[in-house]
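Sequence in, structure out.
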Amino acid sequence: MSVVSSLERPYGVHEPQDANYGHPNAMRERVAGGEIPAVRVEDELKIRESDLPLLAEPAHPPRTGAMARRDLQALAARMVADWPRVPEAGKIEIGRLLSVT
């Protein structure tokens, strides 16, 4: 953990959440993993203002290309496997509702 400069405002892990930087538990995990520097003040972790942009970066880089397609296909297969079967009359009704008039 790093030292907080007297010129920078330290933020508790709940404050950046209000600015959509992520859930406090995710911030704690990233601090514990060494991805984001922080200091402990009494019982609370504090993150320097200059380190807030690190919270905006994804913890894991997004997957691209073939790996992303495989992940998406696997997710779609899991979702569809849990869907109930649609009877033929239901398919016709869905087609009618989706058709452009």
